[in-house]
Write a structure and sequence with these properties.
With about 800 residues, the protein is α/β, with parallel strands linked by helices. It folds into 5 domains: about 5-135, no CATH class; about 150-260, Dna Topoisomerase Vi A Subunit, Chain: A, domain 2 (3-Layer(aba) Sandwich), CATH 3.40.1360.10; about 305-385, no CATH class; about 440-685, P-loop containing nucleotide triphosphate hydrolases (Rossmann fold), CATH 3.40.50; about 690-785. Helices cover about 30% and strands about 20% of the residues. The chain has 22 helices and 37 strands. The chain has a 5-stranded antiparallel beta sheet with strand order 5-6-7-8-9, with no helix packed on it. Strands 11-10-12-13-14 form a 5-stranded mixed beta sheet, sandwiched between helices. A hairpin with a 6-residue loop joins strand 17 (about 325-330) and strand 18 (about 340). Helix 6 (about 300-315) packs across helix 8 (about 375-385) and helix 13 (about 520-535) runs parallel beside helix 14. The radius of gyration is 38 Å and the shape is elongated.
Length: about 800
């Protein structure tokens, strides 16, 4: 019979689909009594072997039809029989002796281990669409320990026995004890490690080894996997001449006759463990080597990666995750400050092998699995498999005690679970009162005001800005929202603008501020802002701003809290979280409208003569008193939180609700001025962008009437009408356009930049006028101005 004359739903015999009745197929050699030319059709199996037909009669093709569901006419129930294979060679059908159900925590059947006559095993999962209702492949099925629901339901104080096979589990359970094992026999414990670790956590565990070399190696491997989670652990074996626990019990002996496995040191139960101490200690397997959990490398890379992630999350204290990549903390080469560094594949490899060992299956049962080095492909799979649920997320690093959102203080060095910050103190800090009074807060604020007493601020509100900046840096872990920009401005050089920012940074971190230049080119600005976001420094300081300050990249990062950029060598955009507090300095600064409303401005108006100074060398004085000043700012914040965040009537700074609810109120509670009043405004003289926009609304209708019969004009038409300039004609409009879209060199403004500036102001109303646009069939905008009724 050929494949061509098999009807719909019929499957021809081949090496991958041998006959379940006789175990043969059509292409086997003739003359050996194994060839079968039958096929499957629905619930029927047609077999050509007469010796398996019983009382069945052949059909016209000489085939015997066996019913695979229920009792067959040959006298057998075939779905309780299956062909057993070694490689692709059939060994004929075998009668099923027994089955062992593996169920999940909820009792749902996942798969069965089937034991055939002759002590042969196979595994199958329920599948209503498969013949007989079973699929003999377990691809993608979650593996769990045997009797998991019963194990989870028992009293945690009862010890658990781990043996090599299901028969031994049932032997121990008949004696009234709790037992489990993994499917597949020796060397397969890593398949069930995740579920077993949860079920065995904090329990007394007894591992029983079979009395042979392979069984002993398996028991030692199991013990290595659960040593970290078990409350106590001992490895035993049956005394000679008994092979396993079933043999021991069959001989009439009790479990108390088991003897310790030679060379295995028991893990005693803690007495009890310290509240904040470890629950386990490492034990050495070789002199000078710390015990490492083992992972058997196999074809299921997903299970190997999952096991590796669990071990690394538990054992490597210096490994963190951030922005969908694995990172660690290293000192900066430039300043020595701790910084976050991404880990490459070569950098991850030694960290992995320091904590985990990998084993390759032995070629046969008489040999021991050998240690192997993990491949680069495996390490790469681990490094590119977020979200890594067992590895800690690193938000940022702080060298100063910080405030949490619940008002408590991060004061213990190390990783803080509540905030995700790593606290690495750069000096020793005095203790902070748990319940500071309002008077304590007032005294602390007076001490901080004294730091900046030599600066000639224009009013007390501006004097609060550097203190608010310091409080923002130290309270950043308590503010999940965004924070404003702090601008230090003066009318002339040498007034102390940069010195203020430097003092804030020294108090917050212990080192001088790293100054950056602010790029005005949009592409360069995005690169700079993205690099700052990746570094996650507590402060970013742009000093001595020239020209207009602002732009889409810096404004978007401050408002949304993130910035996206395609990283070098990658196709997809990488999103970086913005955690830094921005400080800016400049003389008579001009700012975009959007940046102006995001800023608090501190202005200095120095007199003609200055001095004498209370702090002739301010930075040196701040370094000497830094620890006390940090405690002062934390005392203000802690006192405000302890008294229930009383409403100070400070108002809210646009886009910064959470910051407005903490920092301004804390300073007013301590007796300071309302720092929200220092926000930028048109009246402050800090911007000319709003005035330029008003000129556009005033003069654009005249330009449209003169050059385009009153119809809307495109950006290119506007620039063509204005450039080259005609003496005296539309000079104000030309100056306003250059303010909104600053030209490069002596060239006229760029059409793209001007179009973007106009789109940002689309629909805005000023002086009863509104900017609007129409779009033609080619999707080109034409701009005009409409009067708005009051």
């Amino acid at each position: 019979m050929t494949l061509g004359n098999i009807g719909t739903g019929q499957r021809h015999r081949n090496a991958q689909s041998a006959c379940p009745i006789c175990g043969g197929w059509d292409s086997l050699p003739r003359g050996h009594g194994r060839r079968c030319s039958g096929y499957d059709s629905g619930d029927w199996c047609h077999c050509s072997r007469e010796e398996h037909a019983g009382s069945l009669e052949p059909n016209a093709a000489g085939l015997y039809g066996h019913l695979m569901v229920g009792l067959c006419g040959c006298g057998q129930t075939h779905h309780e029989r299956a062909a057993v294979y070694v490689g692709n060679s059939p060994r004929g059908p075998r009668a099923i002796e027994t089955t062992y159900d593996y169920r999940d925590e909820a009792g749902v059947l996942l798969y069965q281990v089937v034991r055939f006559a002759g002590k042969q095993f196979a595994q199958r999962r329920p599948d209503g669409s498969a013949r007989g209702g079973w699929d003999w492949r377990l691809g993608g099925v979650r593996r769990v320990p045997y009797r998991l629901p019963e194990l989870m339901a028992t009293n945690p104080s009862r010890p658990v026995y781990i043996v090599e096979g299901e028969k031994d589990v049932e032997t121990i359970e008949r004696l009234g004890h709790v037992a489990t094992c993994n499917p597949g026999g020796q060397g397969k414990w890593h398949f069930v490690e995740a579920a077993a670790a949860k079920a065995l956590s904090g329990r007394d565990v007894i591992v029983i080894a079979d009395r042979d070399a392979v069984g002993q190696r398996h028991a030692i491997m199991v013990a290595d996997h659960i040593r970290k989670v078990a409350r106590s652990l001992v490895v035993l074996q049956a005394p000679e001449p008994h092979k396993d626990v079933s043999d021991l019990v069959a001989a009439g002996l009790a479990l108390s006759a088991l003897v310790p496995l030679e060379g295995q040191k028991p893990k005693a139960a803690p007495e009890p463990p310290p509240k904040d101490g470890p629950l386990w200690d490492d034990e050495a397997t070789d002199p000078g080597e710390v015990a490492r959990p083992s992972i058997m490398i196999g074809h299921r890379v997903d299970l190997v990666v999952d096991a590796l992630e669990r071990h690394m999350g538990r054992l490597d204290d210096g490994l963190y995750k951030r922005l969908n990549e694995l990172v660690t903390v290293l000192p900066s080469e430039r300043s020595g400050a701790p910084t976050i560094r991404s880990l490459s594949i070569p950098a991850i490899l030694p960290r992995v092998t320091r904590h985990v060992q990998f084993l390759a299956p032995a070629e046969d049962e008489t040999k021991q699995p050998k240690r192997v080095a993990p491949t680069d492909r495996l390490i790469s799979s681990f490094a590119h498999s977020p979200p890594w649920p067992n590895i800690r997320r690193l938000v940022g690093i702080t060298e100063t005690p910080m405030m949490r959102s619940d008002g408590t203080i991060i004061s213990v060095p190390g990783y803080d679970e509540a905030t995700g910050y790593l606290y690495q103190p750069s000096c020793e800090y005095p203790p902070i009162k748990e319940r500071p009074t309002q008077r304590d807060a007032e005294d602390a604020l007076a001490s901080l005001v004294h730091v900046f007493c030599d600066f000639p601020y224009v009013d007390p509100v501006h004097a609060m800005v550097p203190i608010a900046a310091l409080a923002t840096v130290i309270a950043k872990s308590a503010i999940s929202g965004r924070v404003p920009v702090f601008v230090f401005e003066a009318s002339q050089q040498g007034s102390g603008k940069t010195l203020q920012g430097d003092c804030v940074h020294i108090i917050a971190t212990g080192r001088p501020v790293s100054i950056s230049s602010f790029p005005h080119d949009e592409d360069e600005q995005r690169k700079t802002v993205f690099a700052c976001a990746l570094e996650a420094a507590p402060v970013v300081f742009f000093d001595n701003i020239k020209g207009l300050f602002g732009g889409a990249a810096i404004e978007g990062a401050i408002t949304t809290g993130s910035i996206s950029q395609r990283a070098l060598g990658q196709k997809d955009n990488v999103r970086a979280e913005w955690l830094s507090t921005v400080m800016v300095s400049g003389n008579n600064m001009t700012m975009t409208d959007d940046m102006l409303r995001r800023s608090l401005i501190c202005r200095i108006e120095p007199p003609e003569t200055r001095g004498p100074f209370q702090h002739p060398n301010l930075t040196q004085w701040v370094r000497q008193n830094r620890a006390r000043l940090v405690v002062d700012i934390l005392t203000i914040l802690r006192s405000y939180a302890y008294h229930g965040y009383p409403d100070a009537g400070t108002g809210c700074l646009d886009s910064f609700l959470e910051w407005s609810q903490l920092i301004p109120g804390a300073l007013v509670f301590a007796g300071g001025a309302n720092v929200v009043l220092a926000k930028g405004s048109e009246a402050s003289g800090a911007t000319d962008e709003s005035a330029a926009f008003r000129i556009v609304l005033r003069d654009l209708p005249s330009l449209c009437a003169l050059r385009n019969d009153g119809r809307p004009m495109t950006v290119k038409a506007i620039l063509s009408a204005l450039y080259p300039p005609v003496l005296g004609a539309f000079a104000d409009l030309r100056e306003a356009v250059e303010c909104l879209a600053p030209p490069r060199g002596n060239a006229s403004p760029d059409a793209l930049r001007l179009g973007k500036a106009l789109r940002q102001r689309l629909g805005q109303v000023r002086d009863g006028k509104k900017l609007t646009c129409a779009m033609d069939r080619t999707q080109v905008r034409a701009w005009t101005v409409l009067d708005v009724a009051p």
